[in-house]
Amino acid sequence: MTSKTNSPLPVDVEAGQTYGWCSCGFSQTMPLCDRAHRELSDKKSFKFVAEETTRLYLCGCSETKTPPFCDNGHCTLG
Known about the structure:
With 78 residues, the protein is mainly beta.
């Protein structure tokens, strides 16, 4: 069972901290990686460093072409 959602998800991030965005859709902590991919998928997390302390809206469907940010790829899902 995947935890994907067809909308961007808010995440509060701190400047200088490294985060792992889930690219497999199996994470129970979407949109952040909980390492579920290790047993359920061959996809890897996408690591990024927050440039500032803020709220980001990250892709929840894992179909973005601009990870970890939403590019409205969910609009093309059936």
